[in-house]
Amino acid sequence: MSRKRLNVHGFTLIELMVVIVILGILAGLIIPRIMGRPEEARRMKARVQMESMETALRLYKLDNGIYPSTEQGLQALVEAPAVGELPRQWRKGGYLEKGKVPKDPWGHEYVYLSPGLHDDFDLVSYGADGQPGGEDQNKDVNSWEIDD
């Protein structure tokens, strides 16, 4: 009986170690970049929501001649106000698509001032901590700072 030697190829320990080191280096470079993105995405979502609410507020003004007061708040975009100067032609169904005022990406209410300190109205998200001011993830997102 003749035995044939099978030509089986495998990886050596050194080759496996090189691959593991390369994967470790790539993970060290990529993971920090990925981990920083959720906060950037939340800030972008806040800007997009603010732009949507600004559009709704402008439509409200077109229909009614005024912006909702601070007292009426953003809720005036989803249900007709019952306090302050009442709207003349409030649109049935409201001005926001989903029929509710969104919370900011951190789960807090947006702050609405009308008249605003910077424009006809101001919209503010206080960031992750829900408090005015702050840095990094706690930094406020302000409607008057959004690039058009």
Key traits:
single chain, 148 residues, mainly alpha, Glycoprotein, Type 4 Pilin, 3-stranded antiparallel sheet, 35% helix, 6% strand, elongated
Could you explain the architecture of this structure?
The protein has 148 residues and is mostly helical. The protein has a single domain, classed as 2-Layer Sandwich (Glycoprotein, Type 4 Pilin). The chain has one helix and three strands. It has one helix spanning 13-64; strands at residues 111-113, 122-125, 141-142. The radius of gyration is 27 Å and the shape is elongated.
What can be said about this structure in brief?
This protein is mostly helical and 148 residues long. 35% of the residues lie in helices and 6% in strands.
H/E topology pattern: HEEE
In the predicted model, the low-confidence regions spanning at least 5 consecutive residues are: none
- Structural category is mainly alpha
**DSSP, total strands:** 3
Oligomer: single chain
Topology (SSEs and partners):
Blueprint: H1 13-64, E1 111-113, E2 122-125, E3 141-142
Antiparallel strand pairs: 1-2, 2-3
